[in-house]
Amino acid sequence: MKPKYVYVNTLGCQMNVYDSRQIVSELTAIGYEKTPFIENADLIVLNTCSVREKAEQKAFSFLGRLASLKKKKPALMVGVGGCVAQQEGKNILKRMPFVDIVFGTHAIGRLARQVERIEKKRCRIVDIDVATDNDLDSIRFQEINTSDFVTIMQGCDNFCTYCVVPHVRGRETSRLPDQIVEEIENLTVIGLREVTLLGQNVNSYGQKEAFCSFPELLSKVNAIDNLWRIRFTTSHPKDLSQALIDSFRHLDKLCHHIHLPVQSGSNRVLKKMNRNYTREIYQEKVAALRDACPDIAITSDMIVGFPGETQSDFQDTLDLIRAVEFDGLFAFAYSDRPGVPASRFREKINTAEKKERLQTLLNLQEQMTKKQNQALIGATELVLVEGISKKQESTDTSDGDEHQQWTGRTSTNKIVNFTWHQSPPLDAEASNGAASPAHMAVGTLLTIKIEKAFSHSLLGKPLEIQTSPFGKKGENYYAA
Ligand code: SAH
Ligand code: SF4
Ligand code: F3S
């Protein structure tokens, strides 16, 4: 494995000098070597001092000079430790968008594992917990991503007969809209670009509490500066309102994707599941969604082998899959959950049969997804860059940063992997002079030409860094 280099700059007192030695020894354990040359570094660590204002200024002016280095080398990692880190925490991430990790004076023993986490996920981390415990599971630290989830409600009132959620999570309760908006605003300041609003049934958000409707919440979130994309999950078909469908027409940040679990294509089974819609109603909603947003991607959940599901019920499910042409399916073999009504239903389907139905369903969907993905070959898609691709994570990255495989998603939630060649990067014409290719990093919007299609992802060639559709530079959160 090619060695990775760490450059450490130590400011302040003997305590910091001592700590820096420990920082290096921590990092050596994960393959770093100390280098005296800042240009060679894969990781730059600044160990700061906050005893006087001057010392603090010195830290920020050193960091300021790193911005241009990072632009040349997107894979470069920057860490800030020491007393300013402890004192300022995530304010440093706000002020210095190219900093990857802020670690406090008690976090040195956790640094190596946090750095590995960033290498894998390209997230940003603030760890200023003062616990002496170095177990990552028991300390409080914040991981900041380009794309993240924000819970808008908890619990569920629907009592689908197979489902344990209402029993373990209690009744549905919504969070205050202002609280949700504030949380997202705070996250965008430190690099969030895409939010997924989470709830078991977001469509009924705020109804019981008479806060506001879900479409109203969406339009509040849509107004947040520096947020580029909104997603949500999950939607119960029975509560999918025309107003929500119309949101896809009106809200420019709403991604063209909906996850709309149908569970079964058989009306008889849907009734036994207590889902409160028929397949005809489901199909009407799908048609209305496609009318509002012609390129919308629709994904769903399916349960096979629900108690009493006959071959003909199962055929109805396959039939619905063919009719709707889902962009993706999560399918599950029914399993008994303690205390739920379906666990007492008769006519249980045996395991082998459930397995077989599941496989048949998955094969059908895989063929369909592959066909849809193949139809995208040659198309140009707008992709939000999220990090290093999973595939890359699991293989050796020793061929160098320049050839790392990055990953992102289209508005329709398709995964697009691509390789970033720094030189020569893009065709000069395409880059349009708008942004230097070296600006690419996590949080960048890129147009990508799709060249290959697989069943779960696409492979493409980056064309140009995009300005966001909302009048702001889309390159990322790096200050010019
Ligand atoms: N609130 C969401 C789903 C939550 S659970 C909704 O209503 O859509 C996620 C998925 O797990 C469900 O959509 C369902 O497909 C599956 N699931 C839940 N309980 C199950 C069970 N007992 N057996 C098999 N699959 C189950
Ligand atoms: Fe609620 Fe979803 Fe479970 Fe139904 S499947 S009870 S809607 S969590
Ligand atoms: Fe609990 Fe969520 Fe599973 S509510 S049961 S962890 S789906």
Q: What report would you give on this structure?
A:
With 480 residues, the chain is an alpha/beta fold. The protein has 3 domains: 4-127, Methylthiotransferase, N-terminal domain (Rossmann fold, 3-Layer(aba) Sandwich); 146-374, tm_1862 like domain (pyruvate-formate lyase- activating enzyme, Alpha-Beta Horseshoe); 380-476, OB fold (Dihydrolipoamide Acetyltransferase, E2P), CATH 2.40.50. The chain is 34% helix and 22% strand. It contains 15 helices and 20 strands. The strands form 5 sheets. The protein has a 7-stranded mixed β-sheet with strand order 2-1-3-4-5-6-7, with helices on both faces. Strands 16-17-18-20-19 form a 5-stranded mixed beta barrel. It has a 3-stranded parallel β-sheet with strand order 8-11-12, with helices on one face. Helix 9 runs parallel beside helix 11 (279-292) and helix 12 (311-324) packs parallel to helix 13. The longest helix is centred in the C-terminal third of the chain and has 24 residues, at 351-374. It is elongated and about 75 Å long. It binds S-adenosyl-L-homocysteine, iron/sulfur cluster (SF4) and FE3-S4 cluster. The site of FE3-S4 cluster has 4 residues, from helix 6.
